[in-house]
Known about the structure:
Layout: E1 2-9, H1 16-32, E2 37-40, H2 67-79, E3 82-92, E4 95-103, E5 109-114, E6 120-121, E7 124-125, E8 140-142, E9 145-149, H3 158-166, E10 171-175, E11 179-180, H4 186-207, E12 211-214, E13 217-220, E14 229-232, E15 236-238, E16 244-247, E17 253-260, H5 262-270
Parallel strand pairs: 1-2, 2-3, 9-10, 10-12
Antiparallel strand pairs: 1-17, 3-4, 4-5, 6-7, 8-9, 11-14, 12-15, 13-14, 15-16
Helix pairs in contact: 3-4
Amino acid sequence: MKIKTALLQQTAFAERHKNIAATTQKIRHAAQSGAQLVLLQELHNSLYFCQTEKIACFDLAETIPGPSTDYFSRLAAELNIVLVLSLFEKRCSGLYHNTAVVLETNGSIAGCYRKMHIPDDPGFYEKFYFTEGDLGLNPVQTSLGKLGVLICWDQWFPEAARLMALAGAEILIYPTAIGWDPADSQAEQKRQLEAWQIVQRGQAIANGLPLVAINRCGTERACEGDGQIDFWGHSFACGPQGEMLGQTGQQTETLFIEIDLARSEEVRRIWPFLRDRRIDAYADLLKRFRN
């Protein structure tokens, strides 16, 4: 199966309604251009509020199902697309998650994934807002295949991609919000961007799967007086040998790529990594550190 896929890379607005309007326009354009699978960046309804720790930002959260899933479900059904959302989920008072929602072509919720690895770094204070995911590392079955949806910081952990692959994922998908500190030198910026792409291409190769990463772009300051992040864009897709299928620049852009699921079968026959795994020798992976 070949899947025409659209990666919607955007610069966010401070106002929720502007983000939803811009996203809607881009989703419609993607569908009109033939996209069957449409992917949105991490926390697309708002600015990246995790730059600081502010109680008031919890007001951005919503239930699932809720306003966003209701709205985008109608849009997915109208356009007959599989759509991957990224939402700030309010599970109950005091319990919140960073959650991806996969909508089927009929508008139903095919499944959800709650971000498992939560960063806590300068400018990325996500542990203040999000509880670690508890839905496991399980792909979502859709009419286009099994989607292994992970989120941003998850992309650095080979265990997450491997477990998705072992559960039958056919594509690895990473909604993302990553960027530079404005104080970073050009050399440091280059190293970070290349590392981000290399580690994900490595996950694709190690698991024999296509992979797509959808990042934000533009400079964001969540609140007046706060610092800022230059989100570096460069959303990309690669095949099961890590081969680049396409990438964006640093501006608002929709990337269209074709994912050929049959390639994984071909690649896994010549590079049978799953066959040769020494599962009898990996028990220590369950330890934090060996000493």
